[in-house]
Amino acid sequence: MKTDLISAEFEIGKEPKKIQLWRLDVLNHSDHQLGLLIAKVDYELVQILHPGDRIKGMAVYSEWAMIKTDATVKNIKKINQGVYKDKCILGMESMELLKL
Fold first, then answer.
1. What CA–CA distance (Å, rounded) separates 87 from 77?
2. Dihedral (C-alpha) 79, 80, 83, 84: value to the nearest 10 degrees?
């Protein structure tokens, strides 16, 4: 049975004194990959995160559970059409999500 993931949150910032809590909706997921939606209000993340960056202690939420995981940024892509046009998708990879 596949778990429906809803959102993820993590703390990160450009500088240690500017750590911020980010909450992003899960757009899609499969196996050990997770696609998080970066809305225009969260575009600062596009400047902060880069492929290969590791996020430790990310909380991923479903309707009935919360999973703590470490994840690696795989890519950040701008969406050019459809409902999510002009937003970005943050591609993440986490081995812990394989267990869901």
1. 9
2. 30
Give the residue among 15, 14, 8, 19 at the shortest CA–CA distance from 71: 8
Each residue of 78-96: pLDDT tens digit? 999 999 999 999 999 988 7
Say how far apart CA 80 and CA 82 lie, in whole Å. 7
Considering the domain 5-99, what is its CATH architecture? Answer: Beta Barrel (2.40)
Q: Which amino acid is at 71?
A: A
Whole-number CA gyration radius for the chain: 13
pLDDT of residue 49: 94
Q: What is the pTM of this model?
A: 0.87
- CB neighbours of 60 closer than 8 A, spacing ≥ 6? 5, 7, 8, 26, 34, 66, 67, 68, 69, 94, 97
Counted residue by residue, the chain has a size of 100
Report the C-alpha gap between 55 and 9 in whole angstroms.
10
